[in-house]
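The records we work with from here on pair a chain with its fold. A complete example follows; check for yourself that the lines match position by position.
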Amino acid sequence: MKRRRYVASLAGAGTIALASMAGAQTPPTAASDGAAAPQPAAGLAQLQEITVTGSRVIQNGLDSPTPLTSINMGAMSQLQPTTVADQLNDLPTFSGSRNQFTNASTGNLGTGPAAPNPSANVLNLRNMGYLRTLVLYDGKRVPPTSPDGTTDVNMIPQMLLQRVDIVTGGASAVYGSDAVTGVVNFVTDTHFTGFKAQANAGISGDYDGRTYDQGVAWGKDLFGGRGHFEVSLENRSNPSILYRNQRAWGRDVWTVQGAGTAVNPYHLVQNTRLGAYTFGGLVTSGPLAGQQFTSNGYLAPCITGAPTGTKGIYSGGCGAYNNSSFAASLQMDQAFARMDYDFSDSIHGDVTLAATYNHNAAVGANNTLSNVTLSAQNPYLPAEYQDALATAGQTSFKLSKSFQGLPQRTESWTRNYWLNAELQGKFGDSYHWDAWYTHSESRQDTRLDDNINNQRLAAALNAVIDPASGQPACNATLASPGADPGCVPLDVLGPNAESQAALAYVVQPTEFLSTQKMDDVSGSVTGAPFNDWAGPVHLALDAEWRNLSWALASTADPNATANCAGIQYNCTATTLLWADGATPNRSPVSESVAEGALEFDAPLLRNLPLAKRVSLNGAARFTRYSQSGSAVTWKAGLVWRMNDQLTFRATRSRDIRAPSLFELYFPRSVNNIVITDLLTGQSPQVPSYNGGNPSLRPEVGYTSTVGLVFEPRWAPGLAVTLDGFWINITNAITNLQGTNPTVQAQCYASGGASTYCQLQQRPDGFTNTSPTNAVTAWYNEYINISSQNSSGADLDATYMTHLFHRSLRLRALGTFQPHIVYNTPGLTTIDLGGVAFSSNALQASPVWRWTFMADYQPLHNLSLQLMERWRSSLAWTGDPTQIVSSPRIPSVAYTDLNLAYRFAKSDSTTELYLNVQNLFNKQPPAAAFLGANGNPGGFGGFVFGDDPIGTYVTLGVRYQR
């Protein structure tokens, strides 16, 4: 008996690198890979189940009312031979996704207890929020892999991926929570037989950022064709480029400064410096004030640079700046295995196992000393300076310093395991059933390698002369025997004054382990129980129960305080033990979800003039969350296929996004940050407090789409789809951030009366602008308070023809998204359409995004692919009350080239390729986020989505037999 083939494919997809419903009206083939897609045995054709991602009943992509694009992974990897996430993010419909650049560049996004690992690739459809894009793997929900509830798609095994389907419309009625802006479904080639291997190595045009990729896969039919087994192993090594000053734009240290007013508008500043810190140490009190230690132990005047419009921040001069990562490193190993078996003619089973291990690293902002007190008799202070202090009657002095040689390095280890067991079958003449169980576990261990222990720091800074030895020693060790054992005195008077022994004593690694688990039991029945006047009516019933749990174990208690016994300075009863990265423990919490749904697809008209086929598709789902309450979602869609050339489609849906366990249950945590206080103009390093809200409820989204598919007879090979979309999200879960410039402005304008003033703390109210009233703490809160809406259109045009008797394939994909509007009561309405940065959506949102592709074969075995990526110009802010004097960030385009030569034998194929990303070494336009003006060198410099690396060359080989 031959093995039964259950297929989840997109009928009607095209056959080039990126395929959509505008393509040929046959199931997708691997034409670009030189091999036909597997076909079922003729005698089993009636058992084949073909479903379209985004529906459980639609069996032809042209009949789907929801816009859907399918990506042939074999062809796409030729254009972008890196991770599948990098390939997806070349598509205009993805905007604002997280990746190696954004996580490393945004501080807490890559290092905080909420964060994914620093190299995580988190997809974001239409820049409407990471948690509003649902990720599926072979139609099954992929669980969260990161503490904040997001899914790192790097965890998806890639060697045996056949395609990726992208639904760009609401689909919660079919799949449940999170499918507000759409669905991304990774589909495995479950029928692969034979062996294939691939390997490549890449290097940048600056001879750094080397990468190495290897992978093998093997598949074989077993038991006389009743069974099938396949397995793959993959490895990716990307040490990346950890420091910004490895690029010219990074050495320029761009920031946006000013106050956003007509008198002092925001403007772009080069060579930004923090006047409050220097690399050698700046004396901030007493007769030595205003001088810095330019060499170990010796002072010189600190000459500040040009004013920037922000107090304490200059362009050029003696101040310090950061040199954090702009791209995190990634070391990834993956294993995948799948076994399926036909138990009978009508029952089929399969088991899938997948495991991924990631090791990542990134460098954050420098560790700093902020106005620490040192003794006037500090043994490392030369006698002439000690005498000057004694003459002035000073027993101590204050110093601020940025540790240039001690940046905050974060490492993360993520282990992800995924098991799925499934049974499928058929009963009656036209009914199919499906039942599966999924278990997954993700463990993310994040370590801050260079966290300062404030107790040890205070003890080490309190250096004195040991009368017994005449050498520097810690006062705490002498004054309170037994206190701070092993204390090593710390010399901070100079750029490189610190001994390695002292630094090793002061800094300690702190880490937290986030563990997330999911158990999912699901079942569905589909069939056509009856016919109406136009044909069979297809129905689907499905039910699902899943349980998600999360726990957080930390080695750094955020509430722990220092023991100040024997320490004279910089230590009080309220001094927190850790300078940064302190994370609370979170005992295991969980939430269970039960849901049931009904979907139908009914033909209304058939084979009539101007109505070759008209059908109505609808679905409804009831969901019950044990913590968040109940929700009802629905979808209605209409497809009007006028003739073989023109099809119209429309949908309307109600979708939900339930709060994540992190948003619900994250305990109060603290992180020290440097953000400009717009009331006083100061940029102090102060704690930022974060926490969850168990009272959150699901947010609700309403999505409408209207579009057409056009395949004109007068232009054979041409296919065009055009779809408009309108998305409105209410009851949106918003992380209100006290640091947000708009939130600050609302508080200060109210004189302290606004409720948003509760998101910050300061000693003397909200009208005193003196430096002594600088902010002392920031707060972030999750709350169902906002609404969000967006609209736009997607265009997809494909043309397949011949040039000099050789095949030529052209493709253009474009997204027009003029508005992404955020409404929060009491705050200014923000429109991020065409804006580069924002506090809550840290990615670029160009109004226009285009990707152009060409695939040509000038010789029989030689192929050439070109890809052009372009975005429109960007504004600096979406707040209409903020004034910016700098010109808009200009548009930019990048060109990618791939050359491949294929050696074909009767039983195998070998392909050698040369891939060049950013062929013309286009540098990113200078840009920065106005909300990070107090963090020069730690953020920005380029717009996320642009290419900060420059030309990148990859050589590789693919083999298959």
Notes: The two ends are 25 Å apart (CA to CA). The first helix runs from residue 73 to 79. Confidence is low (pLDDT under 50) at residues 1-50, 106-111. The chain is about 10% helix and 45% strand.
